[in-house]
Design brief:
By secondary structure, the protein is an alpha+beta fold. The chain has eleven helices and twelve strands. The model has no long low-confidence stretch (mean pLDDT about 95). The structure holds alpha-D-galactopyranose. The site of alpha-D-galactopyranose has 10 residues, from helix 5.
């Protein structure tokens, strides 16, 4: 039975007819990692693997949520703050932010997911976007997609992650067959058609799980902000990350750590531009090379990879069926994204990964899908 059917049946038995059913996708990112919060452009797409929410209005001020995958339940009282962890914290922060500005009432929600949790494919943003979308629809708030992006990212900031807008934006704006070239400075995007890609995208989930709030994610953001501030002081300018040049970065000669952090941002911004050209020119082998370079930069200059992600990328690099690969998402665990030939067989790497780390490597295919849908 599909996840969606399962939730619908459970909801119908326990509560009755729903007012709304939505599908909220996860996201993959071709390239443009750890630059969304620097105002860079990124190139992600929404994936088919999704979270499903079934919901109905209540007449009181309780938002009751059942997480069917883990068989847990929580009541959130609108207007009353309480401390939560795990999936509950995303609901609670999103409800806190939305109810501060809008008058809302209670909801019963059941949800379950095909998106692997902690795999760097944005299960946390899917929760935030899901609850915001449901409340918007049920209580006619009239929120624009960009307003929802804003509320969802504020909710994640409330949990302690100073993230960018890539995940929430992709989940809301995703379009089948297309990657989104998101300008994170202006909060706008253009579509990059990847339907003629003769290869396929796969994600290899290391099962090294993480909650970004407990990783040095914020530290990296702090370091590049500091690097930019020092550069601007020294060159007496007010450049943004996207305007910084190699010569500007050279002025950080006495701060090697900050220098390599901002070098990642600089080179990754360039790689995104080149990647779009590769796709437009149908030059997928050059795109693969950019993915490999991105991984090296994330691993060596930005230091947000881990031994498991490095191992997977290293093994894949000697496989002639693989055009390129890199760690994806916030890092410190999660997944590798790889561009592979149709005939790629993941058995060898699954086996060697398990032998090396005693962990399972879960491999799934992903393709560009639509953003949030009302079913
Ligand atoms: C996480 C954050 C995003 C982005 C990526 C790294 O997924 O939520 O905003 O910064 O990490 O590219």
């Amino acid at each position: 039975m599909s996840k969606l059917k399962y939730i619908q049946d459970r909801f119908a038995t326990d509560i009755g007819a729903p007012d709304i059913i939505i599908r909220v996708p996860g996201r993959a990112n071709i390239i443009g990692e750890h630059i969304d919060y620097c105002g860079g452009s990124v190139l992600p797409f929404a994936i088919e693997q999704s979270m499903y929410f079934v919901a109905r209005r209540r007449s009181d001020n309780i938002i009751n949520v059942k997480a069917l995958d883990v068989d847990e339940e929580q009541d959130f009282l609108i207007g009353v703050e309480s401390d939560h962890s795990g999936w509950r914290s995303y609901f609670s922060q999103a409800i806190r932010i939305i109810s501060a500005d809008y008058s809302i009432r209670g909801v019963d929600i059941y949800f379950a997911s095909d998106i692997p949790v902690g795999a760097g494919v944005s299960s946390s943003s899917a929760i935030c976007v899901g609850i915001i979308h449901i409340i918007d629809r049920l209580y006619n708030l009239g929120l624009t997609k960009n307003k929802m992006v804003d509320i969802a990212s504020q909710a994640e900031h409330g949990i302690g992650i100073r993230g960018g807008i890539m995940d929430q934006y992709t989940i809301l704006h995703g379009q089948k067959d297309n990657a989104l070239l998101i300008d994170c400075n202006t909060g706008t995007h253009s579509l990059v058609d990847i339907s003629s890609n003769p290869y396929k995208w796969i994600l290899l989930n290391t099962n090294v799980k993480h909650e970004l709030a407990n990783t040095p994610y914020n530290n990296r953001r702090g370091q590049v902000e500091e690097a930019l501030e020092i550069i601007n002081e020294r060159i007496q300018s007010r450049k943004t990350f996207s305007q910084v040049s190699n010569t500007d970065i050279a002025v950080l000669y006495d701060k090697p750590l900050l220098q390599k952090r901002i070098k990642h941002v600089y080179t990754e911004i360039l790689r995104v531009r080149q990647a779009v050209n590769c796709i437009t020119d149908n030059n997928y082998s050059a795109l693969g090379t950019l993915l490999n370079q991105s991984h090296k930069s994330l691993s060596e200059d930005y230091e947000v990879s881990c031994k498991e992600l490095d191992f997977v990328c290293n093994e894949l690099s000697s496989d002639s069926q693989v055009l390129g690969c890199r760690m994806m998402g916030g890092g410190f665990g999660g997944s590798v994204i790889a561009l592979v030939q149709d005939g790629f067989d993941s058995l060898t790497i699954e086996k060697s990964y398990h032998e090396k780390f005693g962990l399972q490597l879960d491999v799934i295919s992903v393709s560009p899908s639509d953003g949030v849908d009302i079913i």
